[in-house]
Specification:
heterodimer; A: about 800 residues; mainly alpha; 4 domains; two-stranded antiparallel ribbon; 31 helices; about 5% strand; B: about 70 residues; 3 helices
């Protein structure tokens, strides 16, 4: 700095005065004139352009450009000077000084190149000295002022003629500079705007993969590092745009409604973005001159910043949603809702609201009307094809687990499923087309709430409550219909009475009537005879007072039989259930058949044993005289008693401990049931526990086979006793005949021949008794073994009740199993 | 103390030399005095671009006056 200039004044006016004096070379008149000009400029221009970009790097680059255009040495010299300037701390406002120098340099450059286009454009008073605008001091000042106050050069008419001239030269200027190794910012910006829309430009080329853009390597050489950085940031936007557009195009056709909703939202965002691009483009067009550009790379970066952030999240969401559809897609979007970034939350909420809309509509349709309109399998409830109407409840509708959105819990999903299923059940199975209670209110509610109710925390509570209400009301309606119209309880009672042998007198009588018929081989039995027997059994017993409808449902059936089966093996009672209650009972009918089989068998054994005991008593009276019969009868007697004890205990266990307890429990549950599923569940539990109790379940298979062999012993013993009875009767009758013959004989006695015959017969009879005796003895022993084994199995069972049964069967430790 | 002041002055001189050289390189046509004043103005926080315009303007005005006087 010039140290010789005395005390340094730092205020601007003084310095300006000094400057004017210096320039005017101490001519006072001129100096005053200059001062006026200078102050008028400064005072007005502060208002016109208060802010100048003060990026030092930018200025340096521009200086470099100018100098390198001149010569290489100059450029190198500049680098040296610049580093010197940078080193010192004397200059506080280095940037400002540099900017001043640059501006000055530019102005003198333009003076040479384009006839001072710049200064003419901005300050018409500086038109070349030759112009007709006379430079009378006052006049020029006025014109300058008027120009600045009007912010526009058009106010001076005299300039206009020359300014058209100037403009044309100005328009051609940028292209000429672009050809000279310099890329103007304007051109670059235009290219970037193209790339924003996915179009290649002069300097920007598409990358491999067709998504991103890179700067053309040739053009890239001429970019300043700052420009390059800016361009790279800006092309990032183009990449995002292309990615989103690609997603939209790819998923436009395929995918379901929910996917389309996502695409629509993305397209909406894209069109908002295009609007911004259009604004950018207009701003770019408006600016005619390059020097004070209205639109710069920086500004455009600011312009699109908001979109950029949104697009980043949208692209991320779109990427997550790729290859997903329906509920899975909704889940993917919902994941972003919990994101910490405010923007991510906003964007994801918007997208989520959009994608939930179709889901919401589907959901309400399902809840209100039980309809599924879901051609692309997006809804989280699916309808399958079913063969029988009874299977509607069980098989037709399912929750599609992969499609359940994350904001709906599995519990809710099940309730939703049950609600729609109930509606379908009412409509299709019960033919109940009446309006369900409370539907109107619900419909109103569905219209008033929006899709946000599904995931917004406060509203989702409300949604949950509504769902609960709908579910409850629909279920109640179903239960009401089943209990009252379709007499669910009566059916349960009938099943209990007839298939589970609750109606004792009827079963007993039926058994008695059926014995001769069922002893025949299976193939000789005819349905109609059995039906007739069933009819008569009903007529004679208390079953006749039963409801007509119930009795009509009761029929007999045969299971498939093979060679050697008797009627006992194939006979079964059947209770036909159809209609809505069939939904509950139809799937369990086979279980009922099994249970009936087991109980029926036990009943039959009881019946057989009772008959045996009766026969034993008659035999004891009848054959009192046949002493030889007594030992064998004794064995049979004891064995029968054992068997009766065994069977009574077993039956007691079956009928009271198992059946009655389970039945009571089921009734309790059915009365408290809230929906059809509860009843079905209770019924299934009941059947399972009974099945387990009568040893028909998987774990007690061995026990059951043991029990069957014990039953077989009973039947064997019955056979033996029968045979014995027959033989004894025959023997007794022949003996009677023989004695009467002897008494009434005219020959006083018998012939030797007859005597030999009689002896042989008695001998035969004795032999028979002996053989029976050994057989029965053997049978008794093996029976004991089987019972022991059975008891051991019982006592080792994990079921407490079975252990107790074992204790009861061997109460006084008769069998000594341990 | 005086030592640091001396170095400061020396530094200032060097810087000014560099600026002068730069001015010459950029063909601004400023003499030492003018540059010195302008640098000080810049340091004082004046808008550099406007200042540049003013300087240019003043130079032209002076040139005009001179021309006129020569013509007369």
């Amino acid at each position: 700095m010039n140290s010789s200039s005395g005390p340094e004044s730092t205020n601007q006016p003084d310095l300006i005065l000094k400057l004017c004096n210096h320039v005017a070379k101490n001519k006072p008149v001129l100096s005053a004139n200059l001062c006026k000009i200078a102050f008028s400029f400064l005072s007005s221009s502060v208002a016109v352009a208060p802010n100048v970009p003060s990026d030092e790097q930018y200025i340096i680059v521009q200086i470099r450009q100018i100098l390198s255009a001149q010569s290489k040495e100059n450029a190198e010299h500049f680098e040296l000077l610049y580093s010197n300037i940078c080193k010192t701390s004397v200059l506080q406002n280095r940037c400002s000084v540099l900017s001043f120098l640059l501006k000055l340099a530019k102005m003198s450059q333009k003076e040479v190149k384009w006839n001072t286009v710049e200064s003419l454009e901005k300050f018409p008073s500086t038109i070349r000295p030759k112009s007709h605008l006379a430079l009378k001091s006052g006049n020029s000042q006025e014109s300058i002022r008027s120009i600045f106050q009007g912010h526009c050069h058009n106010s001076v008419k005299s300039v206009q003629s020359s300014s058209t001239n100037i403009q044309s030269s100005c328009l051609t200027a940028p292209s000429s500079t672009a050809d000279l190794s310099l890329i103007t910012e304007r051109d670059l910006l235009q290219d970037i705007i193209y790339s924003f829309q996915g179009i290649e430009g002069r300097f920007l080329r598409k990358e491999v993969g067709n998504l991103g853009f890179t700067v053309d390597p040739k053009a890239g050489k001429n970019l300043t590092p700052i420009q390059r950085g800016l361009v790279e940031r800006l092309t990032g936007m183009s990449f995002l745009h292309n990615q989103l557009k690609q997603y939209c195009d790819n998923n436009d056709e395929q995918g379901g409604v929910i996917c389309l909703a996502l695409v629509a939202t993305l397209r909406e965002e894209l069109s908002a973005y295009y609007k911004t691009i259009a604004l950018l483009q207009t701003a770019l067009k408006k600016q005619v001159c390059i020097d004070q550009p209205q639109m710069t790379l920086r500004k455009s970066l600011v312009y699109i910043h908001e979109h950029r952030v949104r697009f980043e999240w949208l692209a991320y969401i779109a990427e997550q949603c790729n290859d997903k559809k329906g509920g899975a897609l909704v889940t993917a979007v919902h994941g972003f809702l919990q994101h910490g970034s405010k923007c991510a939350q906003e964007v994801s909420e918007k997208v989520l609201t959009a994608v939930c809309k179709p889901l919401y509509i589907m959901l309400w349709r399902w809840l209100l009307d039980g309809e599924i309109n879901d051609s692309c399998n997006e809804f989280f409830i699916e309808a399958r094809d079913i063969t029988a109407a009874e299977r509607l409840w069980h098989d037709k509708y399912h929750v599609r687990k992969s499609m359940v959105p994350s904001f709906i819990t599995m519990d809710q999903a099940k309730k939703i499923l049950a609600t729609g299923k109930s509606i379908n059940f009412l409509r299709q199975i019960c033919k109940d087309s009446g309006q369900l209670p409370g539907r109107d209110a619900l419909q109103k509610l569905s219209r008033s709430t929006s899709a946000e109710a599904l995931f917004a925390p406060e509203q989702s509570l409300e949604f949950d409550a509504t769902l609960e209400k709908v579910y409850r009301e629909t279920s109640l309606r179903v239960l009401d219909l089943l209990k009252n119209k379709y007499r669910l309880f009566e059916h349960l009672q009938s099943l209990r009475r007839y298939l589970l042998l609750g109606q004792g007198d009827f079963i007993r009588h039926l058994l008695e009537l059926l014995v001769p018929e069922l002893n025949k081989p299976a193939q000789e039995i005819y349905n109609h005879t059995l039906s007739a027997i069933l009819e008569s059994a009903i007529r004679v017993t208390n079953a006749q007072f039963e409801d007509e409808d119930t009795l009509q449902r009761l029929t007999v059936s045969f299971m498939g039989h093979s060679q050697g089966d008797t009627g006992w093996d194939v006979f079964s009672l059947v209770y036909i259930v159809d209609g809505p209650v069939g939904t509950i009972f139809q799937p369990t009918m086979t279980t009922y058949q099994c249970l009936f089989g087991a109980l029926w068998k036990a009943k039959r054994m009881e019946f057989v044993l009772a008959n045996m005991r009766k026969q034993q008593i008659t035999m004891a009276k009848k054959f009192r005289k046949i002493k030889e019969l007594q030992p064998v009868m004794h064995i049979i007697h004891i064995l029968t008693s054992e068997m009766i004890h065994f069977l009574h205990q077993t039956q007691y266990y079956f009928l009271f401990e198992v059946l009655e307890c389970s039945w009571a429990e089921m009734l309790r549950q059915v009365n408290h049931a809230e929906c059809l599923d509860d009843i079905i569940g209770a019924h299934t539990i009941f059947l399972n526990s009974v099945q387990c109790g009568v040893l028909l379940d998987e774990s007690s298979r061995q026990l059951f086979s043991q029990l069957r062999s014990i039953y077989n012993f009973i039947l064997n013993l019955e056979g033996h006793q029968e045979a014995l009875n027959e033989a004894a009767t025959r023997e007794y009758e022949t003996y009677l005949e023989f004695t009467t013959n002897v008494e009434s004989s005219v020959n006083f006695g018998i012939t030797t021949d007859e005597e030999i015959k009689a002896k042989a017969r008695v001998e035969n009879f004795h032999q028979f008794i002996n053989s029976i005796r050994t057989k029965v003895k053997h049978l008794s022993q093996t029976y004991k073994q089987f019972v022991k084994k059975y008891l051991i199995l019982l006592s080792t069972s994990s079921n407490m009740n079975l252990q107790l049964l074992s204790v009861r069967l061997s109460f006084n430790d008769y069998y000594k199993i341990i | 103390m005086s030592n640091t002041k001396l170095t400061q002055i020396k530094e200032a001189k060097e810087t000014f030399q560099a600026l002068m050289e730069l001015s010459r390189l950029l063909c601004t046509g400023l003499d030492t005095e003018t540059l010195s004043i302008c640098v000080r103005l810049c340091e004082a926080g004046i808008n550099p671009e406007v200042l540049a315009t003013v300087v240019k303007e003043l130079q032209k005005e002076v040139a005009n006056v001179n021309e006129n006087s020569v013509n007369e």
